[in-house]
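Shipment paperwork, digital attachment
Item: protein structure file
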Amino acid sequence: MRRMLTAAAGLAMIGAAIVVAPTASAAPGIPDLSLSITRNSCDITVTNVGGATATGVSLYSLTFGRLSTFPTTLAAGQSSTYHILDCPPGSPYPNAFLTTSGNGDLNPFNNVGVLI
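Attachment content:
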């Protein structure tokens, strides 16, 4: 009888782990855009480091507004680079960039960069 109870308790624990696991992995189903700037080549790279496809992706420039040639969808792990033609050191002004996603962002604090 003791072995039966132990086995039943073990199965109950495994069953509980299976039920809990999907809730714990809900965060990877959210896109997470990350913006990086390469100063010497004037490239702005946006990468989706999240676990879901980012839709409605936009790249904005403080100076130029929305950069419409940027792709609007980035799959998980995909990157896209935008080359700025008028950028420092030849430009007399710094330029800030922001990227957004229409279906959310796990960490919006890595969506901004400044090209000086």
